[in-house]
Design brief:
Length: 245
């Protein structure tokens, strides 16, 4: 099985603070395709942002992550149970969940082993939702600057799994009955430069750059935007959603 890759236990507090939040409407539409609302599992839950939305829809939510530090920053609610577990070997009973969600984490998994586990713990007719968000976009000028930063400055520091994000999971095998949502979704933010800086510094490629070069590449990028008080940005959401075949 694929070796566990954990890029997010270090500085997990800032990760939880600066990571963008999926719109509630997006999670709700996914849930509309689920026959029953008894139990849901959020895998790679991080700070529990998706689990919290699921807790408003499902009677019981389980949420797992390989990072104990991430879970220490998760939002606690009575009907959410957090625990440390890898995605490919979970502690749950057969045919237990109505819905499994995986937000911005699937590309780290052993795909085949995970699919077998998902099929084991999903109920008949259950739904698996893999989703994530691409590089943030704004004005044409911002996008040009971001493209240089993303591709040229830190491009070589991304793990090889980043290709799955860049290709919006369209380059993966997905052995489920595909479901399409009613519209495209975006995460929209209106950030100060300090918030943007905090978000960019949570990128694993930035952390690797800083470790190898003893300097923070985000500083120069933020300097290019100096004078801006607030900046409106959006993250395009991509997904692969399907029910058991």
């Amino acid at each position: 099985m694929k070796t566990i890759i954990d890029n997010f236990s270090t500085d997990s507090g800032n990760y939880a603070k600066y990571r963008p939040t999926y719109p509630k409407e997006f999670i709700e539409e996914i849930s509309h395709h689920v026959n029953y609302k008894k139990s849901a599992l959020d895998i790679g839950t991080g700070n529990g942002q998706v689990a919290v939305v699921l807790s408003e829809i499902f009677a019981q939510v389980n949420a797992i992550d390989i990072s104990e530090n991430q879970l220490k920053n998760a939002i606690q609610l009575p009907n959410i149970e957090y625990q440390v577990s890898r995605a490919e070997e979970t502690p749950f009973y057969n045919q237990y969940f109505d819905l499994i969600t995986v937000g911005q984490a699937f590309h780290w998994f052993d795909f085949d082993a995970f699919y077998e586990e998902a099929k084991r713990i999903l109920k008949p007719g259950g739904v698996l939702a893999l989703f994530g968000y691409g590089v943030l976009r704004g004005s044409a000028d911002f996008n040009a600057k971001m493209n240089v930063f993303y591709e040229e400055v830190i491009g070589s520091y991304w793990d090889k799994e980043r290709i799955y994000i860049d290709e919006k999971y369209q380059n993966i095998n997905f052995p489920f009955n595909e479901i399409n949502l009613s519209k495209d979704y975006f995460i929209k933010v209106n950030w100060t430069l300090a918030q943007l800086k905090g978000y960019l510094e949570s990128w694993s490629a930035v952390k690797k750059y800083e470790k190898q070069n003893n300097e923070n590449p985000v500083e120069d990028f933020i300097q290019l935007l100096s004078g801006i008080e607030k900046i409106s940005l959006e993250f395009p959401i991509f997904y692969r959603i399907g029910s058991l075949k």
